[in-house]
Every structure is written in C-alpha cells, then in structure tokens.
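User: Some background: our group keeps a shared notebook of sequences we're curious about, and every so often someone picks one and asks for a predicted structure to add to the entry. Today it's my turn. The entry only has the sequence so far, pasted here. Could you supply the structure so I can complete it?
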Amino acid sequence: MTTQGKGPIVVAGAGLAGLAAAVRLASHDVQREVVVLEATASGGGRSRSFDHDRSGYELDNGQHLMMGCYFETLAFLRTLGRDHCVEFQRNMAVDMIQPGGRRVAMHCPALPAPLHLGAGLLSMRGLGLVHKISALRAGLLLKGEVDRPDDNETCDAWLRRLGQTQAVRNAFWEPLIWATLNDDPLVSSAAMLMAVLERAFLGTRDASSFGIPKVPLSKLYVDPAVRYLEQRGITVRTASPMRAVECGADGVSGVVLRSGERIETDTVISALPPNRLLSTLPEPVLRDPVFADIRKLTVSPIVNLWLVLDRPLWKDVPFVGLISSPLHWLFDRSRIEGLDEPGRVLLNCTISGARGMVDDRPPVLIDLFKAEMDRFFPGKRFEVLESKVIKEKKATITHAAGTYQYRPETVSPVRGLYLAGDWVRTGLPATIESAVQSGHDAVRALRARA
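Assistant: Of course. Here's the predicted structure to add to the notebook entry:
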C-alpha cells in the first residue's frame, strides 16, 4: 500500500486503538515510515497489565470480557497470532447469584440466532414463569420491533416500554447494561444497548458467546503488537508524549513532543483520550463545532478489586454476576489462567460506573467486598491473603442518552488528522471492540484519501 505524504505517519497513543492502527498499517505494508508515540513507559492504555510484587501475580488494570461479535478485535488478534489466548464459550451462558446464594442461570441452547436467545431466556433457572415470559417478549421483539429506541431514550425507559419485570431486569438486563455501557440504566442510552444486542444476538449464535482472555492483557495485546511492529521496522517510542499538533491552512504540518523535538508530518492518527487530544490542538482549531462537542463528553469510572483468597468461593464456572449488589462481576482468574496453587485463588471483582466508590480508600472497598461475599456466599469462610485496588477514574466516556452526537467521526475537520479511540463514532459503546475498530477505521479513511 502506498500512502504518499510528507514525513512519517504519526500514530499518537499506544493503547489498543493506536496499536490496532499501527498494526493495520504494518500488515498492509505501507510504503511510508510510521512512528508510534506513547506517553507512558509501556503502552496499553486502559488494557494493560503489570507485575504486583506483593502477590506475585501479573494483574490487569481492568478485567475485560469479549464476545464472539468482536470481529475487529479477533482480526487484530489473528494478525498477532494471539487469538488462541481467548477462551470462548460454546454457547452463551451467564450465571447470576442472588443474595443468599441462589443462582439464576441462563444457558442458551445450540439453536440459530436469535432463537437461541429466546430459548435461553425462557429456560432461565431461578425465575418464575411470569418473568420468563416477560424476558422472552423482549427477546422476540428485538429483531422486529418497529418503534426502536433512539439515542434520546434511556435503557430504563426502553425496558419499561418492553414490559420487563424487575426480576428479569435484575438478572439479565441491568448486569448487561452495566457491563457494556459502564453506567446506570436510568441514564444510559438505549440506542447504545441496541447496538450491542444487534451485533451479539441477531447475527450468528457464536456472536453472543463470551470470551475471556486466558493471559494478562499486556501478554495478549500489547507485547505481541509491539513485537509485530518492531519486526516490520516500526518503533513504538515510549515515554514520548506528543505535546502539540501543528496545523496550518493546508492541515497538519507537524507534531511537537514534550521534549521539544519536532517531527514534520502531514498525517497524524490521534489515539489519545478526548481531553488529551484537545490539549494538543491550537486554539483556532478548537473553535470548530466538532472539537467543541468533544468537550461535552464526560467520563465514567471503573473500580477493580484484585484479591488473593485462601479458597474458591465457587468452583463450576469462570465468572458470576451479583444481583442487586454494588459489586457487579466476580472472575476466578486462577481457573481462567489455569493457575494451580493450593490455598491461593486469584479473584477479580469489577465495579462498573463506580462514581460512588472511586474516592473510597482501599480498606473500605475490601471491607465492602467481605460484607457482600457474606451476603452472596453465606457460610463460606475465606481469608483475603493479598489485595490490590485499581481505580480507572476515566475508564470510559459516559453513554448517557443524547450524548452520541458529541462523538466525532474518524476524519476530523483538520486535513491529515484522523481520530481513533473507543470514544469516537464507531456505532458502539466504549469497549475493546470499539477501540480496535476505530484504529482500523482510521487506516481505512487514510487509505481512501491517499
């Protein structure tokens, strides 16, 4: 692929969006130098891992689930030769636990989509017939509903319109909303939820299956991507934050690093978070309505508790959800990663949309975990041997109803500046899939303009 222009193609940011863009450029054998600039010492953004000396484990900064409909992410992993490092369910299955320990389980049978969802909802163990029929009604309406939600309708309003009972909401819909939109159903956009449902449940049966990385995230994405790039002559320059994008009447003319170094270029793929991007642009450019809208995007936090327990809390599935709890999901990382250490179980607890807890001190959050485990696993005695609390205060943008219009297109108003990141207008909420897709979209747009 020949992409003409002045200087190298600069990819700013080595999170998933930036790495995906750079790998896509490399895999297309672009006949132009590519430079990846990363502010941190290792890259990975919000999808990375680190060594935790006290526990001896490599921990992710956040637990991530994938789905079979993550087509762009799976293509990225195949390019890196790492797609085998994600374990997918044969059929979608979710086990939720109620206070007191009773389970509500939805296991979809091997039927074509979307019949597998309808059958799974109808056969949910732990819910009464009235609630199952309520759930089935929503499942059957997804494909043919005439009055579909737009971005101004909240998930709560849409579920009420579909007549979903509170029991079904607690056991299925609300955990799905918290997990995919990282926000409260009372404010989250139903259109963003519908985007997830369409990809996951209205294509093939495999699209809805959950996939869990079997290795830490840096080993899954970051390290293999950097190796792939370096083997093809592309260097990821870590600890090299971009301070400014120089723009003139003809578009991008260069970038300036924090060190003062200037790189002449007419092509930049920015894979920076919204506020970081805005801080690099000159004031006249920021007056454009596109960048003014980006300022309106707000963020939603995620808190992850990593715990080493002296025994497992459950044994039969890799993860469970908690119904009506401030804690949302529990992942048995020892089971997932195949760690066999008697008397030591590595557990992740994920709290989405954690505005009310993001400022709490770690001991307070660990005490909350212990209290909730007493509620959900009564009589189960355990000891917390080690713990680590990770707070991502800007984990994702907020997907509140009415905010999708603020997300920018890949091609920016500045000639030569392309935007990537899970927060740009991909048609998806801010997920790993959205990040990778945005990087691929940026390369497609660049090639189209070459």
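Suggested note for the entry: The chain has a mean pLDDT of 92. The CA atoms of residues 195 and 427 lie 7 Å apart.
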